[in-house]
Structures
1.
Amino acid sequence: MDAGTERKPKLGSQLKTVLTDFSESTSAHGPPKIVGHKFVLAKLFWVLLFLTGIGVFGYFGYKLIVSYLSYDSTTDVQIKFSALNFPAVSFCNLNQFRNDKLPKDFQEIIKDFTLQERYDLYGGQSNFENYFATNPTMTPLDIPFWETSTAMGVSTTQPPSSSRRRRSVEKVPEREQAIFDDLKQIYDSPNETVSANMKWFSNVGQTTSDKKILLNMSYFLTSEISDDALKSYGHTVEEMLQECTFQGQTCGPQDFYQFYDRRYGNCYTFNSGLSGTYSKTNSPGAAFGLSMTLFINQPNYIPVLSPQAGVKLLIHKQGEVPQISEKGFNLAPGLKTSIALRYLVMERLEGENYSNCTKRNERPLDDSLHDYYPGNYSQQGCYKTCVQMLTIEKCGCANPLYRVPARIRTCPIQNYNCVEEVESSIDYEKNCSCPLPCWESQYLYTTTSSQWPSNNYEPYWKQSMQSRGKALSKILNDKTRQSIKEEFVNVEVYFDNLNYYLYKERASMTLEDLVGNIGGHLGLWIGMSVISFVEVFELIASLFAVCTKNFCFRKEINANVPNFQLQE
């Protein structure tokens, strides 16, 4: 072995030298203190402090990563001011078909179903006919159903099971049962004796005549008669719209687009956007909104189908199917209803880790959604499409109270139980995929009402309405009617201010936030930065180089040893 190999430093001393150089020159705050102190206690103190800092940093770093991976979100609320798009305003008469326009065979259908319901309540047709034969002054259709069991002395506690709608119920969770058991201290159990004496009450909640008739008429009308004929049986906008002003300008029937609703018949939309334009509002207040006076024509209401009188109104955005049956609200005759609007916009985060929303004009289902609810996507329309598709799948026909696509048969009354079963048992989370839209706007409203017309104004109003049509003139001239209030609905729709709310969802912690927070804790507890990490990588490279060089040196020595022995 030559002298050069004997003077080669050992690996341990080389590694110590590299670590000492790193500790003295690093930008991290702990290692220089550990190496620089001469006293052992001081070195131990700084070692303990440095390790504690690493532990605390590790804890907070773990918490930050867990928070980032939870994908929490925060909603920012901004109040902005600008000219606003005036909403689309849709209305329908609460009476679907005009009695004087229905063909006689349809009127017979209504009468037959009404009488059949009375037969069931009276215990059969023979009991029904015998009772009114002995009471000729009474009209069969005028007696409320709760009086029938008392008048006839028959029991109606056993209605046909097929006519009773199934309730959608859910069992109380076991973890909550103790709460309900505790509440029993303040409640008394239902009085079954009283319930047994109220035999008529067993019929409440059954499939009533109006819904049976509506289902049958919907099936017959939609399958046998064209849409144009259906519309001819309802109230027209020319008949209903008696006064209309928008932003101080007169509007009329030419400004209303018509659509057909399965529950309310003919409906009309103002500012629908279908003409290629829609109106904006630059000023708040009733003077810059929409005002309408609507004639509801109660004498032509169908008795069994129209228990209420008035107008169904819906405030909605342009570009979507008006879901007036579900989202609309009623306006009563004889009142002036003021509807003050406020506008809001919601922007949701995309991605399955957040709201899993669908983009503004995209549909999460296949193209068949367009056959049911065309226009912009809405979650409510998607759910109704899901129910209708499931009804078609299980019942072989479509629910007549929802939109029915072309070439699909409408369910007759014989399939009523199947239709009800689907509606009451559907699990929206399992059976439907209907995410929220990523961008959504809504019109919030508050309503106030007052008597209209006032007692002193009514004579002037009546005089101005005399030339508005034969039906209206007949009602106004009918001396048996005490007031015209029962025939008119007055409504005004306007923005109470032009401030609108922007709700914007954002991630509570982004990747940039995570990196910044980790860097902050790293600097606070250990005193390290990005430069420090570069120095650590440099240290690792230096240690690797020393180890590699030492390994090669030893290998060379082992190769030279046999040659040295051979020379001796």
2.
Amino acid sequence: SLILYSIVIVASCNNVTQLRFGPYLLADGDIFVTIDPNISSRVHRPVVDRERVIVPEYPWEGTMHFYGSVVNVGPQEDRIYYACNVGAQVNRTRAPDGPSSVCVAVSTDKGETWTKPMLPIIAYQNWTETNMLFQSQGGWIDSVMRLPIGMPAPKGTPPDTQYLLVFDDGYTNPTFRGMQLATSPDGFHFQPLQPIPSLPSSFADTSVSLVYDPVIDQFVAFGREDGYPDQHPSQRCGTETPDYNMKSVRAVKRAASSEGLTNFNVSSHIPFAFDTLDPQCLDIYNTAASVVSSGARVWSAIPTERSYIAFPSAFQHYGFAVNDGILEIRFAFSREGEAFRYIGGDRGGYIARGIGAAHPPSFDLFNFSDGNILARWDAAITYMYAGVLENPNDGTMQMYHFGQQGSHARQDGTDRGLFGIGRATIYQHRWMSIGCDVPQPGGPNSTARVLTLLSHPILLPLCMSKSETLTLTLNADVSVGGFISFAFLDNLTQKHIPGFSHNDTLPFTGNRLSSPLLLKSGAIANLSEPSLSEGLRLQVQLLPPARMYAWEFHCLNVSKV
């Protein structure tokens, strides 16, 4: 069969939810109005490679500390853009350790191996060729993004632009601390964009993630703003001396481009910040926000769906050092990119730090061990790079993160220990799920009880041709003995649509990334039937153990099925 395009649920109008293109990640049941209390949401953690995939090799990689991005360039090439600084040390009173450059590593085998291309762009001492592509004047390199592949450039994008680099020069000039951009036709040669985007200097504070939102057809930037009130202002940051009390921390701010890349409007609200359930002196280090969608704008009147995922690093400041501490990645989700939330209240480390020392008792050098166990290379710091790489060959998605044995600033200017870039792998769109793992007793013989979810009123999309039929696929893991069953109800009568009740459709079983909705006859369920053209509701019945990760609607060319 030939999949022409895929569709998914989005924002509602007059209490009826229309459908859009792209994967719909299931989280907290926000599409469901009725949920059995035994059904829960869960965050799923990836498999993390024990060893680093990229290590420092050259003198301009004295540190690979701070930020980076992963970018798909095409079917046969992926890239990692990472900050690389000559200076290898940072003392606790001076944060920047010299002009920051962006370095690049390339993979042509879906992340199995990475090489550093030597290019005649930026020289270093006697090296006429390096893998450095761009250098700031004293600030930070934040992130790199690729414009949608195979689609017209978003409005206001400069001619020949395919890549955007975010950086700042706030260390040398505070007026440039707001986000700055550089453009490139090939992802190697970057030129600063003029004029500088209209953002306040407090917006950037480094760590800016820039994404393109295909639904609103705008670029969206997530910065880190100073001055967000600490939720525990009367408490101390630590027990060590000198006593240190942070009066404010950083929070995530959102800005969207009103036209082109130079006019950004900053939202008044805070999309994400730590709260009273977190300890005092917990600070946002970076957002690492990404958009999950079908990958391009769609010419149809119904635009592509998208979801936002973010991996904010929690920065726990030490009580004795203002700008030092440990960092650990968390996971947050947003449907529209306006407000991020934890899934199922999960605030645990998404990519946990490795075994080893975490809280030094003094300014003494780490011994980088835990008893007789040598501390792993990411024992004190983990933070995620922006972007996700998809491997269609095995149905996985790769995320890349920075790790370091030593704490954030190495408060006494001593060695950082081992550091580098690691990889974490998860199955396609399986960051989170909704479902139940424990069978619930019910009935006189204590047989397992079927759990039910009922959606808000919805409208199915229309395929563009009579030769197309609308179908649905589900990404789910159903253990032996469980099932997931889909049915459609008339929104007015609340009765099952004839031919689409639980008695008509075949339940989902097994562990599959894309399982089609079938009728019990074995045929693919045709959701283009006229009886489904009006307002209806989706009813899901679930017999644990079973979890749903995502679903999509597809238009198939029936002449080729």
